Amino acid sequence: MTDGLNKWATWREIHRQPDIWRSWGATLDVAGLRSWIADQSFHEIWFCGAGTSAYIGDIVAASIKGTRSVPTTDIVADPAHVLTGARPLVVNFGRSGNSTETIGTLDALDALVPHAPRLNITCNKKGALATRRSNAPTQVIVLPDETHDAGFAMTSSFSTMLLTALALFDAPYDVADRFSVLADQLESVLPLYASQDCPERAVFVGTGPMAYAAREAALKVLELSAGQIPAIWDSTLGFRHGPKSFVTDGTAISVFASPHEPTCFYEDDLIAELRAQFPHATVEKIGPGGDIDVQMPFGPLWAAPLSVALAQVRGVFWANNLGLNVDDPFADRRTLSRVVSGVKLYKVAS
């Protein structure tokens, strides 16, 4: 089923994630970074990014108290409203570290909260997040070069930035061991995610951090199919409140399941309802005891990159079957680019 897919950088980047996680978990200076964070003065932790980088913050903030997801697109659009009176530790995510909104956020921080500490997590050692200097206390984490995806869609960059944030802000644990366990899990499920048949539409739902993992999964399908496969996301219980109208006989529905009660009961009820109401649609449970059994020994938050990998793999299959350039699905349109640029930035009034 995978014949010919290895020609795509995106496919290779998806499958190198386990090796990246093992290596990174063994070298990341968690103790030193946690010590630096503890020495800073702040009232709240903000996770900032745009697109997939913003969804990382959504996933983390859904589970870790005292944190917020504040997209850079919100900061740049209305910096005075977002930043006035704030005293955050700003955690910036960026694959390239050079998107227009990243630059605009750094400008806004310099103008309005110049002393707010910053932790920049990026995959590009030459980008602004890695190289730009400020008067604020700043710590930079540059991920391995392999995470600076060449493909349009963020894959290893997403998962490794997410795991890095969890290593620093979730409860302490043996980082090398946990990253290794997750890497072994991903290797075992990647072959199970293969799917040749392109659906008419795709739906991803989940609860808590898995709802935001569903958001990232929907984006992967939209991006890799260049919009030819419409995809939406929602929470497990929220899906009935209107978004279920999206479902047709040709829809593929993936429920990112939780191991926790009562959450898993609600998910099983939704799956049963959808299978009864839409017998010709495909409804899959992805998670403990599911159609694809993804175990979650560390809980749903840590399983988010394992679940999102489903959409990464299928997005490549489907894009390839549609005859698209998987590494640049918008090559013929030039309506989207790998790094967002060309957005006009306006001066921030200090």
Q: How many domain units? A: 2
Percent of residues in helices comes to 40-55%
Strand arrangement, largest sheet?
2-1-3-4-5
- Mean pLDDT across all residues, rounded? 95
- Tell me the series of helices and strands, N- to C-terminal: HHHEHEHHEHEHEHHEHEEHEEH
Shape: globular
CATH-derived topology of the largest domain: Rossmann fold
Spatial gap, N to C terminus: 57 Å
CATH class of the largest domain: Alpha Beta
Count the E strands.
10
User: CATH superfamily assignment of the largest domain?
Assistant: Glucose-6-phosphate isomerase like protein, domain 1
Radius of gyration: 20 Å
Total helical segments: 13
The helix/strand class is alpha/beta
**Approximate strand percentage:** 5-15%
Query: What is the CATH architecture annotation of the largest domain?
Result: 3-Layer(aba) Sandwich
Low-confidence stretches: none
Main pleated-sheet profile: 5 strands, parallel
List key phrases describing it.
single chain; 350 residues; alpha/beta; Rossmann fold; 2 domains; 5-stranded parallel beta sheet; 13 helices; globular
